Amino acid sequence: MSVPGQGTAPGAASGDRVALVTGASRGIGAHFVRALREAGWTVVGLSRSGGTDPDGAPLLGCDVTDAAAVGAVVDGVVADHGRIDLLINNAGLVEPELPLWEADPETWWQTVVTNVRGPFLTCRAVLPVMIAQGGGRVINLNSGAGTRERADLTAYCASKSALARITGGIALDGAEHGIYALDLAPGVVETDMTHSMRMHEGRTDWTDPGDVTAIALAFADGELDGFSGRMVRAGADSLDTLRERSAAGLGPDDRALRLRPWGPDDPLAG
């Protein structure tokens, strides 16, 4: 894994980089698996039910909300490959679109558990590996829903806002260890999940999966480290512009979740 000023991280030749991708059996996760493999990465895919990835390679069965299962899988990946250079937390859920007072409590909470506890547990298991090897990168699949309220997706919005705080914390704590973290909002890619959502009924303007994977590959290659702890959105952000902004540097609030004061006289403005 490349680290600014050092090329690839100690012990990782450019063709030996290892990526761990959750939710890899279908949808955006499957696109990540294929794009990384085509770029020369060794890819280990996780799926709750196992099975195979888009290239027919076996997936490791793992419930990412189960701490013991996650720990065992990460230990196995390190035993087999010696390192983990990139973690993509793609596994996620969205609840039925309903007002909060009509939501089923178990379904609502399971959305939060999957979208927050899952990335927490995988990061908790993988980050010590990255620290020991001299660096690494984490991509958390976020959403524009994490930056605003929706009347009918309170669990999903809450979970994605929380995920942004995890990403930001990793970026702050991990910087001295050569670890970078990115919130990647994929836009609206045509998947089983998006087709299940009432808000996308009749949609024809889908985000190109290639735009999503291009940003992921650029971040994995160290081209967007200036966005560590921040959010980018495939389909809206130009990759060339992201590269330029990353090199130029961002302000402390750029592309981060922040409270917006009503003006300079707001006591919270400082």
From TrEMBL:
Coiled-coil blocks: none
Residue ranges, annotated region (Disordered): 250-270
A Pfam family: adh_short
Alphabetized InterPro entries for the sequence: NAD(P)-bd_dom_sf, Sc_DH/Rdtase_CS, SDR_fam
Domain of life: Bacteria
UniProt record, GO biological process: fatty acid elongation
GO molecular function: oxidoreductase activity, acting on the CH-OH group of donors, NAD or NADP as acceptor
Family listed: Belongs to the short-chain dehydrogenases/reductases (SDR) family.
Record-given protein name: NADP-dependent 3-hydroxy acid dehydrogenase YdfG
Lineage, uppermost ranks: Bacteria, Bacillati, Actinomycetota, Actinomycetes, Micrococcales
